[in-house]
Amino acid sequence: MRFLMVALAFTAYVPMMAQSRQVMLETTAGNIVVTLYDDTPRHRDNFLKLVNEQFYDSLLFHRVIKNFMIQGGDPTSRHAEPGVMLGNGSLDYTVESEFFDAEGRLLHPHQRGAVAMAREGDRSNPERRSGGCQFYIVWGRTYSTQQLYQIGDKVEEQTDHRVKMTEELLELYRKTGGAPHLDGQYTVFGQVTEGLDVVERIQQVMTDDYDRPVDDIRIIRATVIQ
Fold first, then answer.
1. How far is the C-alpha of 193 from the C-alpha of 212, rounded, in Å?
2. How many Cβ atoms from other residues are within 10 Å of residue 146's Cβ?
3. Which tens digits make up the pLDDT trace of 194-210?
4. What whole-number distance in Å separates Cα of residue 183 and Cα of residue 44?
């Protein structure tokens, strides 16, 4: 599981979010509001179940990589001593991936603010099923057109030619930024719609050799707000 591992104007990849469920993550660095996608119902319902069970309360953002993402949800992080490597905690189930719609199109890209589930690597998890509890929030970076074509070629190969670097994705990753190399391989099930500035601050903190923040950043509580 170690592998995954706001004031921005989001584009076409935030459909019908006004009526979707929202979760507030109250953290020691500030509040983050996540709007969940209804077209990834397995992941939406799993996340809501864990939130309602107060599973995420007091857990750490245990893995932070600048210009990439922040990751939380490891149940062993609740009482972890300083300096301990985290990221291997999980639940006793996985969630079937939700990458594509009925026509085989990518549901949601890894744009800045995307919320996705971590999982085991391809070798032990060829179906790319999500882990039951660990999630990450993308910060990422912007890319040039040439860089995106190179990334797109690799992603197309890794997804059996199901994900292509369309003009829409080119525009998104040039202007908004994100982590395009993960598209079609990890399930994106939500989007940060408030508090992206908090995500920005968290991804900039000092970390140790295990990518764990030197000063703990904790989810105080997670609650369903809509």
1. 25
2. 8
3. 999 999 999 999 999 99
4. 18
Residues in the chain: 226
Residue 146 CA to residue 126 CA, distance in Å, equals 30
Q: In the predicted model, what is the mean pLDDT of residues 67-72? A: 98
Residues 6+ apart with CB under 8 A from 142: 173, 174, 175, 176, 177
Query: From residue 136, how far is each of 7, 130, 149, 150, 177 by CA, in Å?
Result: 20, 12, 25, 24, 16
Query: Which of 137, 116, 130, 110 minimizes the C-alpha distance to 1?
Result: 130
Q: Cα separation of 158 and 130, whole Å? A: 17
Q: What is the pTM of this model?
A: 0.92
pLDDT tens digits, residue range 93-123?
A: 999 999 999 999 999 999 999 999 999 999 9
